[in-house]
């Protein structure tokens, strides 16, 4: 399917890489060293993928990666899977952060709780607390390669616990306390952890939710030697408990060295480049979540590169990205510390006590870069917010959004309601690579409804079914060369078979990500949704995101879900589910208007067969629509076969789709 766009350019930076941006300084250094012309972004990206060994060596040097032993080669080969990066290096992720102690007067982080509690932590205090937690781990015999896991909200304790674990060479994993016992254990038990750091409660939308029972159940399921309890909502576990070989201590004891005091500077474990730093988890909507393992060096160089060259973040900046510990954006936010950036960690509802809560934080904390999701922007738009009028955003330089395609309507709303001088930068990547494939840069224009260009060092393309790169037509998003942040493997995957099956089973030697994308002749990208959720009308493939762009926000619709369902009798049904905006009714007249808009703005093929008005749409815990599991339920699959209910934000909503599948089956039986 060929994609036509109106090519409305929202921002017009200079085409040449000039000025005092970080990317300009990097280009100046590289141009002189290699005597090459990389005066614009296209040339820079072309060089970064034609000579990735040189590019990543320059990133390492330019950002001053701290290592006790230098690598002897950047990349052993360009094969996928199996490429090895920075062999011979000995380093630790945490050392990149500790170097700012005594150098910066700005805060390292600010933790904000929903109830208004604000905790500002300096670089020296961060060093002290991380050292204290690391000492606690060592006195409790936690060794290099052991696992430390968290059941924690997005606050300072989670960041400190992660850094303390990484400092001693332990492997970190975490999930938020909105997960119940089964969902949390499905993830964390895979790691057989030595230590569990758990919150006693969490607060969301004005309600404190006691999690002591879940914490106790997790201890039984995980069997850690040490449990560290983090108090919340006035709920504490104060007694030190010895039972079944498990020792319990308080958070205060843990960050103060468990009675052993704190010694500075912290001596970190020097580990190999590919030593596991953390394990992230797939959504788990279709089965046991996959544990995705990333190494120290790959994360350090990738995050320093994207923070600096793409986001232009450096010492003195403040980053606020609303996230939870379930989402890979939490890991990216923590990594802002690598660049000396002040990190804002907000724990709570994004809309409590008022729908503009996030914008208030941006104003109060003098945030220079804000990160969010299209869903939260849509919520602000639907609520009629005008943040640029109601809040002082004078220090905000740009807004970044990821998690779903950003519609043209949201681009327009941001320019109108926030500021035409504050660009909305759409990015897309994945938990799999804990970074982006496509995004923006200070020298790249922003196009309405599009993503500006490829990330440096990412050899991205859109492939047709035959494995040929195509432009201006829909294809599979692929990466043809290794990236440092690609997984070093999956947890408990001997022989890497599941890893190969996940990304390399369609195009041998090429990473297939599972997104449907158009690579335009301008170099920008348009995302159309997951390729495994593709709509197929009479052999013509359609992207769900194209329909959402037209429907959401129009005709009284707040959110929409469209599914393409191949039924057992050979029929094909394409239902759309509509959630009305607050105070609106989506009636037959509105649905007729939606049909007409889709017919005119997309094509007659884009018009769904039927419409269902529903109260809400179910998502994963990270806010993604359950397109594939719900499609399979409507095909007749059982919920247990296609969905882990604990990974869903509103499990009660699934019943509607089960009942609809049964109604369809009854109708087909009568024909």
Describe the structure in your own words.
- Residues 44-94 form the Acetyl-coenzyme A synthetase N-terminal domain.
- Residues 556-624 form the AMP-binding enzyme C-terminal domain.
- It is an enzyme of class 6 (ligase).
- This protein is an alpha/beta fold.
- The chain contains 21 helices and 39 strands.
- Strands 7-6-20-19-21-22-23 form a 7-stranded mixed β-sheet.
- A hairpin with a 2-residue loop joins strand 14 and strand 15 (246-250).
- Helix 2 (41-50) crosses helix 3 (52-62) and helix 7 (181-188) runs parallel beside helix 8 (212-222).
- The longest helix is centred in the N-terminal third of the chain and has 17 residues, at 123-139.
- It is globular.
- Mean pLDDT is 92; it is low at 1-6.
Structural class: alpha/beta
Strand order of the largest sheet: 7-6-20-19-21-22-23
Number of helices: 21
Q: What's the Cα radius of gyration?
A: 24 Å
Mean pLDDT rating: 92
Principal-axes shape call: globular
- Total strands: 39
Unreliable stretches covering 5 or more consecutive residues: 1-6
User: Gap between N and C termini, in Å?
Assistant: 34 Å
Strand content: 15-25%
Largest sheet: 7 strands, mixed
Fraction of helical residues: 25-40%
Domain AMP-dependent synthetase/ligase: 106-480
GO molecular function: acetoacetate-CoA ligase activity; ATP binding
Protein name: Acetoacetate--CoA ligase
GO biological process, one term: lipid metabolic process
């Amino acid at each position: 399917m060929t994609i036509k766009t109106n090519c409305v350019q929202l921002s017009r930076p200079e085409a040449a890489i000039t000025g005092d941006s970080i990317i300009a300084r990097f280009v100046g250094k590289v141009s002189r060293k290699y005597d090459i012309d990389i005066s614009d972004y296209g040339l820079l990206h072309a060089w970064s993928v034609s000579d990735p060994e040189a590019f990543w060596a320059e990133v390492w040097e330019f950002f001053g990666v701290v290592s006790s032993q230098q690598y002897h080669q950047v990349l052993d080969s360009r094969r996928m899977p199996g490429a090895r990066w920075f062999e011979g290096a000995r380093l630790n992720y945490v050392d990149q952060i500790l170097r700012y102690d005594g150098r910066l007067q700005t805060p390292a982080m600010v933790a904000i709780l929903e109830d208004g509690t604000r905790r500002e932590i300096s670089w020296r205090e961060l060093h002290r607390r991380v050292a204290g937690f690391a000492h606690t781990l060592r006195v409790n015999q936690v060794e290099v390669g052991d696992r430390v896991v968290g059941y924690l909200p997005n606050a300072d304790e989670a960041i400190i616990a992660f850094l303390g674990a990484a400092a001693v060479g332990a492997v970190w994993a975490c999930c938020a306390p909105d997960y119940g016992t089964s969902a949390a254990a499905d993830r964390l038990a895979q790691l057989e952890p030595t230590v569990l750091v758990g919150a006693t409660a969490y607060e969301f939308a004005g309600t404190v939710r006691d999690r002591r029972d879940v914490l106790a159940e997790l201890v039984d399921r995980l069997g850690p030697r040490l449990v560290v309890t983090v108090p919340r909502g006035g709920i504490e576990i104060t007694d030190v408990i010895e039972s079944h070989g498990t020792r319990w201590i308080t958070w205060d004891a843990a960050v103060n060295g468990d009675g052993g005091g704190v010694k500075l500077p912290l001596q970190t474990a020097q580990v190999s480049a590919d030593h596991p730093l953390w394990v992230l988890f797939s959504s788990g909507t279709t089965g046991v979540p996959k544990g995705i393992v990333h190494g120290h060096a790959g994360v350090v160089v990738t995050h320093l590169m994207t923070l600096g060259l793409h986001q232009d973040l450096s010492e003195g900046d403040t980053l606020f990205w609303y996230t939870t510990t379930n989402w890979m954006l939490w890991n990216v936010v923590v990594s802002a510390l690598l660049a000396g950036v002040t990190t804002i960690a907000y724990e709570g509802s994004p809309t409590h006590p008022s729908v503009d809560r996030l914008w208030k934080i941006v104003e109060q904390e003098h945030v220079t870069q804000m990160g969010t999701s299209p869903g939260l922007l849509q919520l602000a738009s639907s609520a009629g917010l005008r943040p640029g009028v109601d809040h002082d955003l004078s220090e905000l330089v740009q807004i970044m959004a990821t998690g779903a395609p950003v519609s043209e309507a949201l681009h327009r709303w941001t320019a109108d309601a926030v500021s035409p001088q504050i660009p909305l930068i759409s990015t897309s990547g994945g938990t799999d690579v804990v970074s982006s494939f496509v995004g923006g840069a200070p020298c790249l224009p922003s196009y309405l409804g599009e993503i500006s260009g490829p990330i440096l060092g990412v050899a991205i393309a859109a492939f047709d079914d035959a494995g040929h790169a195509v432009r201006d037509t829909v294809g599979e998003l692929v990466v043809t060369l290794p990236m440092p942040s690609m997984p070093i493997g999956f947890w408990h995957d001997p022989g890497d078979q599941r890893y190969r099956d996940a990304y390399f089973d369609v195009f041998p030697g090429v990473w297939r990500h599972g997104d449907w994308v158009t690579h335009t002749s301008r170099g920008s990208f348009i995302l159309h949704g997951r390729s495994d959720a593709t709509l197929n009308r009479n052999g013509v493939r359609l992207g769900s995101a194209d329909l959402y762009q037209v429907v959401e926000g129009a005709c009284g619709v707040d959110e929409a879900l469209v599914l393409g369902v191949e039924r057992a009798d050979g029929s094909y049904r394409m239902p759309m589910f509509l959630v009305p905006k607050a105070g609106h009714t989506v009636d037959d007249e509105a649905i007729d208007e939606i049909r007409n808009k889709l017919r005119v703005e997309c094509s007659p093929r884009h018009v769904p067969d039927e419409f269902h008005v529903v109260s809400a749409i179910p998502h994963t815990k990270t806010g993604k629509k359950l397109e594939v599991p719900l499609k399979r339920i409507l095909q007749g699959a059982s919920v247990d076969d296609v969905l882990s209910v604990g990974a869903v934000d509103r499990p009660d909503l699934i019943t509607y789709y089960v009942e609809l599948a049964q109604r369809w089956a009854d109708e087909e039986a009568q024909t």
